UniProtKB/TrEMBL annotation:
Gene Ontology MF terms: pyridoxal phosphate binding; transaminase activity
NCBIfam families assigned: PseC (TIGR03588)
Species, as recorded: Sinomonas humi
Gene3D superfamilies: Aspartate Aminotransferase, domain 1 (3.90.1150.10), Type I PLP-dependent aspartate aminotransferase-like (Major domain) (3.40.640.10)
Protein name as catalogued: Aminotransferase DegT
Alphabetic keyword roster: Aminotransferase, Pyridoxal phosphate, Transferase
Protein family according to the UniProt entry: Belongs to the DegT/DnrJ/EryC1 family.
Length: 378
């Protein structure tokens, strides 16, 4: 092949381009009417939960942890099979990170393992919808609430997913989305926090807007003048601009089509690889309608590096998702050690993510299948 086939990429059409151009021709580039419109559209996808648009998936996690009240001395229980931001954002908010192991079939955080890791200092339990497969948010929320904690669902992979009729975003205390180009939809860079709890959503909105208070009824000095605004708690500028929200609105209108195409590709891979003694296809759960972000194929661990390198040599841009978070030196330097979560480490040792995005043609899917079977499946 003359060009590397990526494992993921954005799907942009002329309607997306025109939506952005319309904003560029208008009066608002940053915080304006498209932000409100985008948040309303996100709320519909998230089962009616209030949506707060932010600048990235990492920003969404930071905002969610602050809204949940995470501070120095608190603990956050989470999975190691995730991009490091899931844990890093909580650590930056002051928490000690407690890693719990995964369900080896799905890659998602194991509920029993998470509950065993809870202590009286646990402020939040955070589960990741790995590869787009939603966790059981009702079960995780109930468990967290039994221990006077909140449940955060890191749904960076799963916007548009549904479990037992409940859309992702409706079941957790706080849910975070990412709109990076490889995700299920994009705003170039961007993310969101959604919550069914108005007070949690209000905290998220204040923090992402530098803590500014403009509501006259909430001002400490309401008669200062019409220009007056106050900061009651520190915040940061995590505001997503109008121009990117316009792209997001256009993308959301095609989200279900993206989900269907991702499922078709996922099904084609499953059909080719299921039953092969050298390969393990991704697990799922009853009642799930995932918006698959990744296709995490598992291969023989002792051959994974050679398989990865050969597929890349053949022009197939496979990826690995993810190195266990506590393997990063920043956690090693804090005293975390390998071996803490054996199922997550085993999963990582076998995992290769195959190309999966809506623009992938049937011919390209067939080419990926043929090469994977030649390199890894025999």
């Amino acid at each position: 092949m003359s060009r590397m086939l990526p494992y993921g990429r954005q799907s942009i059409n002329e309607a997306d381009i025109e939506a952005v151009a319309e904003v560029l021709r208008g009066d608002w580039l940053t915080t304006g009417p498209k932000v409100d419109e985008f948040e309303r559209a996100l709320s519909e996808v998230a089962g009616g939960s209030e949506a707060v648009a932010v600048t990235s998936g990492t920003a969404a996690l930071h905002v969610a942890y602050v809204a949940a009240g995470v501070r120095t001395g608190d603990e956050v229980v989470t999975t190691p099979l995730t991009f490091v931001a899931t844990a890093a954002a909580a650590a930056i908010a002051g928490a000690k990170i407690v890693f719990a192991d995964i369900d080896p079939a799905t890659g998602n955080l194991d509920l029993d393992s998470a509950e065993a890791a809870v202590t009286p200092r646990t402020r939040v339990v955070t589960a990741v919808d790995y590869a787009g497969l939603p966790v059981d948010s009702a079960a995780f929320a109930a468990m967290a609430h039994r221990h006077d904690a909140l449940f955060v669902e890191d749904a960076a992979h799963s916007i548009g997913s549904v479990l037992n009729g409940v859309p992702v975003g409706a079941g957790a205390d706080l849910t975070t989305f990412s709109f990076f180009p490889t995700k299920n939809m994009t705003t170039a860079e961007g993310g969101a926090v959604v919550s069914p709890d108005p007070e949690l959503a209000a905290r998220a909105r204040r923090f992402k807007g530098q803590g500014l208070v403009r509501d006259r009824d909430a001002l400490r000095f309401p008669d200062e003048g019409p220009w007056h605004q106050e900061v009651h708690d520190f915040g940061l500028n995590y505001r997503l601009p109008d121009v990117l929200c316009a792209l997001g609105i256009s993308q959301l209108s095609r989200l279900e089509g993206f989900r269907r195409r991702r499922q078709e590709i996922h099904d084609a891979y499953n059909g080719a690889f299921a039953g092969n003694p050298h390969l393990t296809v991704p697990g799922t759960v009853e009642g799930a309608a995932p918006a698959w972000h990744l296709y995490p194929l598992r291969v023989e661990a002792d051959r994974r590096k050679a398989i990865f390198e050969e597929l890349r040599r053949r022009g197939i841009g496979v990826q690995v998702n993810y190195i266990p978070a506590y393997w990063h030196p920043v956690f090693e330097d804090l005293g975390y050690r390998r071996g803490m979560c054996p199922e997550a480490e085993k999963y990582y040792s076998q995992e290769i993510s195959l190309p999966l995005f809506p623009g992938l043609s049937d011919e390209q899917v067939g080419m990926v299948i043929e090469n994977v079977l030649e390199v890894a499946g025999s």
